[in-house]
Amino acid sequence: MVIIFLLSLAPVLAAVLVYFNPQLRPEGSNNYGQLVEPQRPMPAPADLALTTLDGKPFDLNSLKGKWLLVAADGAACPDSCARKLFILRNSHASQGKNVERLARVWFITDDAPVPEKVLEAYKGTNMVRVSPEQLQKFLTTMGVQAATPADALAQPMWIIDPNGNLIMQYPAEAEPEKVRKDISKLVYNSRIG
Fold first, then answer.
1. Are 108 and 73 in contact (CB under 8 A)?
2. Res. 144: pLDDT tops 90
3. 2, 90, 149, 192: least buried by Cβ within 10 Å?
4. Domains defined for the chain, CATH in brackets
């Protein structure tokens, strides 16, 4: 009887020991993206002047309350840009009943016209023009080597939480399945947005 009692008590004691002794906890994290440290709040419209494709002012804070899936690139949208927009669109679409809790944003870092095929393929994405210098002050480009702010911004993808904080960055060559799983985990476990 004592052996059975000790066997049933062992998992509880092990859990308490690991909980109160941080040195026994596993190292690392289980997210694919890189956490942005420190988190950055969304800038005010005066600090980040955004305009829609038809030239109207756009306030990024109007999207607060939603998880934002963000990419930045030039309007010509080369293959690397189309790949990022594709990953974000499919990650967004695969969220099932939580799809309304997310929005997609593409920061266009120049004044060139956006090709019609890109406009058609990524309908539903908030496409806004911005100065790359202003945008780089908000978005981090950790680990990115580039000659200009526009080139640095063209590589990663980001997630902004519903409170308006930049929280995560993904590399340009990110694996779509892992990005989708990260986003699913965030949205599923979040009580906000």
1. yes
2. no
3. 2
4. 29-189 (3.40.30.10)
20 sits in which H/E element: helix 2-20
Q: Is 52 helix (H, G, I), strand (E, B) or coil?
A: strand
Is residue 123 packed enough to be buried (19+ CB in 10 Å), middle (13-18) or exposed (0-12)? exposed
23 pLDDT more than 90: no
Query: Is residue 53 a contact partner of residue 127, using CB atoms and an 8 Å limit?
Result: yes
pTM: 0.84
Cβ neighbours of residue 146 under 8 Å, at least 6 residues apart? 152, 154, 155
Distances (CA, A) of 155 to 3, 58, 109, 125, 138: 59, 23, 12, 18, 15
Per-residue model confidence (pLDDT) at position 140 = 79
Q: Are 76 and 112 in contact (CB under 8 A)?
A: yes
Query: Closest by alpha carbon to 179, among 114, 94, 113, 52?
Result: 94
Question: Who wins on pLDDT, 87 or 15?
Answer: 87
User: Rounded to whole angstroms, how far apart are CA atoms 126 and 113?
Assistant: 15
